[in-house]
């Protein structure tokens, strides 16, 4: 039997309604969908199956609220975000339980996500009063030029399921700090965390219509299209696959919306022979197996210089053997399930392809039987796949060409720096990359040569509210977090004053 889900201290945070204009509302159709625990398949909640009409109602509420919210002072918006941040900390354990209930990640990881998510609220609370314009010397006499930054308007925010709290605050916090209003399309797999955040936003005093959430599972394409085509929505921010990002861009083209796209990755992780081997192993473990490999910046291709590959592989496999799969509520479990059966199918297809093309399975690598499934409960197994290590991986394998998004670590040998950089950059996407080396000249050289938006040098963890998050190539454009993140929700207006006389 799977561990019992701990009760919430504040049961009002488990919500089964959408949030529009500070009201908890059902879908107009009355339809709902089930939210399940991916470690057991047990239903943990229901949410409204919102459609286009529900989405349009949320957009109208946001557009009406923007008329007055845009005039609030930066300090007022900062204070709201600070209160929201504190309420997240005050309710951190309940939020973590909700994340684990619907996402499956271990409770310890969920607690870390709550802290990470709340940090975006605090960061952008501090950025709100620092939305500065500029003065520009004119090229002709008698004129003065200055710029101001203004909120862009209603923003459609489409968030993923892998970080159901942090991806909401990473988008909503800068938007609200800038003076925008938002409509969040919560992920159908993990809407409960988003709705709990909405309740805390309400308690923090964020005005009606400023922060709205629609929930949907089957109607996701129609709701996404509504956000992208509605003329009142001026900005869309999306985190998800490259294929869906391209579709949303096409849908947004008729209204020329401002876009931020954080799309798929295929992160290379390089270990040079001058690296601190133990540190490199730990870095690779953290990068690869965080959230059971279900992160867009996790190591997807681990390149190890041939001379140290046997030692690295041995240490790496020994460390992975210590991990334990299980329910996120099992305190002994280090890793949880994949989000759904389709994810399990994709991971297994990558392993089978690699095996057929010559990879050696050093650990894991086979679907779990129902009896061996740690999420089995009442005959309903969870979506688990064993932590897997593949040796002798090659560039033609799917694990090299596609994002696995699961707990498969594929180790590729390489000989020279030039060779590994060519392999690392041989991808249409470029979100994150990592490498370990103690040669400072190589560190500069490789970091500058990698075709990615973010580089981890001697570390496997790069996410930080203070650091700009985003990619290049087909990993998208725009940056989230950092001092740059708020600019995604602002427009620049220049003002030129003429007839300014300079009198002696």
UniProtKB/TrEMBL annotation:
InterPro entries linked: Ald_DH/histidinol_DH, Ald_DH_C, Ald_DH_CS_CYS, Ald_DH_CS_GLU, Ald_DH_N, Aldehyde_DH_dom, Aldehyde_DH_Superfamily, Succ_semiAld_DH
Keyword check for Oxidoreductase: yes
Record carries keyword Oxidoreductase: yes
Short name of one Pfam family: Aldedh
Catalytic activities: succinate semialdehyde + NAD(+) + H2O = succinate + NADH + 2 H(+); succinate semialdehyde + NADP(+) + H2O = succinate + NADPH + 2 H(+)
EC number(s) from the headed UniProt entry: 1.2.1.16
GO annotation terms (biological process): carboxylic acid biosynthetic process; gamma-aminobutyric acid catabolic process
Catalytic residues identified in the record: 262
Pathway terms, separated by semicolons: Amino-acid degradation; 4-aminobutanoate degradation
Domain Aldehyde dehydrogenase: 24-494
Entry similarity comment: Belongs to the aldehyde dehydrogenase family.
Name used for this protein in its record: Succinate-semialdehyde dehydrogenase
Provenance organism: Exophiala oligosperma
């Amino acid at each position: 039997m799977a561990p019992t889900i701990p009760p919430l201290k504040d049961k009002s945070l488990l919500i089964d309604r959408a949030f529009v204009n500070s009201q908890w509302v059902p879908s107009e159709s009355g339809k709902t969908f089930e939210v399940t625990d991916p470690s057991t398949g047990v239903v943990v909640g229901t949410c409204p199956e919102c459609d286009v009409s529900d989405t349009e109602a949320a957009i109208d509420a946001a557009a009406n609220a923007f008329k007055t919210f845009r005039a609030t002072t930066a300090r007022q918006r900062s204070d709201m975000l600070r209160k929201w941040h504190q309420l997240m900390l005050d309710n951190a354990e309940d939020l973590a339980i909700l994340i684990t209930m619907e996402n499956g990640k271990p409770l310890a990881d969920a607690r870390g996500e709550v802290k990470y998510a709340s940090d975006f609220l605090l960061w952008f609370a501090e950025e709100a009063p620092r939305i500065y314009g500029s003065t520009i010397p004119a090229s002709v006499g008698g004129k003065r030029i200055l710029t101001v930054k203004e909120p862009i308007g209603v923003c459609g925010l489409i968030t993923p399921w892998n970080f159901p709290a942090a991806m909401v605050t990473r988008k909503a916090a800068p938007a609200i700090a800038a003076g925008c209003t938002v409509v969040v399309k919560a992920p159908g797999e993990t809407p409960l965390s988003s709705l709990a955040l909405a309740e805390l936003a309400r308690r923090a005093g964020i005005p009606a219509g400023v922060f709205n959430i629609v929930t949907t599972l089957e109607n996701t394409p129609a709701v996404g299209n509504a956000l992208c085509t509605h003329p009142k929505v001026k900005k869309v921010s999306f985190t998800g696959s490259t294929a869906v990002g391209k579709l949303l861009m096409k849908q947004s083209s008729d209204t020329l919306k401002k876009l931020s796209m954080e799309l798929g990755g295929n992160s290379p992780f390089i270990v040079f022979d001058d690296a601190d081997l133990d540190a490199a192993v730990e870095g690779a473990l953290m990068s690869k197996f965080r959230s059971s490999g279900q992160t867009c910046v996790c190591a997807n291709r681990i390149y190890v210089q041939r001379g140290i590959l046997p030692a690295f592989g041995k240490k790496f496999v020994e460390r992975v053997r210590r991990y334990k799969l299980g329910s996120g509520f099992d305190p002994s479990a280090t890793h949880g399930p994949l989000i759904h059966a389709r994810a399990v199918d994709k991971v297994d297809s990558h392993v089978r392809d690699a095996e057929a093309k010559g990879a050696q399975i050093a650990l894991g690598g086979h679907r779990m039987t129902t009896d061996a499934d740690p999420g089995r409960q009442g005959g309903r197994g969870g979506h688990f796949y064993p932590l897997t290590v593949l040796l002798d991986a090659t560039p033609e394998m799917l694990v090299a060409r596609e994002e696995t998004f699961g707990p498969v670590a594929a180790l590729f040998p390489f000989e020279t720096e030039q060779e590994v950089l060519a392999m690392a950059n041989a991808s249409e996407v470029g979100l994150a990359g990592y490498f370990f080396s103690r040669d400072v000249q190589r560190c500069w050289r490789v970091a500058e040569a990698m075709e990615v938006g973010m580089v981890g040098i001697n570390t496997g963890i790069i996410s930080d509210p203070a650091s700009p998050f985003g990619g290049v190539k087909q990993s998208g454009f725009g940056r989230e977090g950092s001092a740059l993140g708020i600019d995604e929700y602002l427009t620049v207006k220049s003002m030129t004053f003429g007839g300014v006389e300079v009198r002696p």
